[in-house]
């Protein structure tokens, strides 16, 4: 148990998505409170849960302590985002009460390491989803002008379309492969009694629904861009055929000219 937390009825929680990767090797020699996911103490009376895919969840950290901690781990972040995604929540202690999650307030019976880790797992996935939801929304908005170009017979540039497909595939890889948004944490195998807490949090933050909506948007964007690339490919084939026809006509013209000039 984290006894220092148990004197507090309310604890601020902030989830941050900082970059593409977070190197946790530097924490191998530190005093870990727990692992899988990594839980370390930081600040005067706080702690942090860190994830390899670039997310961090801070518990009971002041603004000054947050800045100091983020400066400490900044060298460990690969491809840091210019504007990290953040989500703020609150933990509330109620030893005699029932588990509740309402309006960003998570009521727990205790601040055990395992409970904090489960909370961090869900909040980290939520903030990652938020980041990619915004990224996909920006790309999704570009479908309308793309469709407008199609209506006028313009199919865009090959490099631009290829880049869009690459971006969508990367987002899919990151959310499904790295973050494993829809997978249950390994911690639940050792602590099945926390299954209810995890399920409650997943439902409250709508992880499965948001992930499914993101997948659908990614698929729509991918299908649209793929269609445009097919049209672009078809147009190039047609242009190539016209080039061949033009070369044949030129060859015929040259042959006729030679015949006429000989006579």
Provide a concise account of the structure shown:
This protein has 263 residues and is α+β, with helices and mostly antiparallel strands. It contains 7 helices and 8 strands, in the order βββββαβββαααααα.
Q: How would you describe the overall organization of this protein?
A:
- This protein has 263 residues and is of the alpha+beta class.
- The chain has one domain.
- The chain has helices at 63-73, 113-141, 143-151, 158-178, 187-190, 195-204, 207-262, and strands spanning 10-22, 32-34, 38-42, 46-50, 55-59, 77-93, 100-102, 105-108.
- The protein has an eight-stranded mixed beta sheet.
- Strand 4 and strand 5 (55-59) form a beta hairpin.
- The longest helix is centred in the last third of the chain and has 56 residues, at 207-262.
- It is elongated.
- The protein starts with 9 loop residues before the first strand and ends with a helix.
- 25% of the residues are buried.
* Tally of individual domains: 1
Unreliable sequence segments: none
| Largest sheet composition | 8 strands, mixed
Instruction: Provide the helix percentage.
Output: 40-55%
Mean pLDDT comes to 79
What key phrases describe this protein's structure?
263 residues; 53% helix; alpha+beta; 7 helices
Annotate the secondary structure layout.
Layout: E1 10-22, E2 32-34, E3 38-42, E4 46-50, E5 55-59, H1 63-73, E6 77-93, E7 100-102, E8 105-108, H2 113-141, H3 143-151, H4 158-178, H5 187-190, H6 195-204, H7 207-262
Parallel strand pairs: 6-8
Antiparallel strand pairs: 1-5, 1-6, 2-3, 3-4, 4-5, 7-8
Helix pairs in contact: 2-4, 2-6, 2-7, 3-7, 4-7
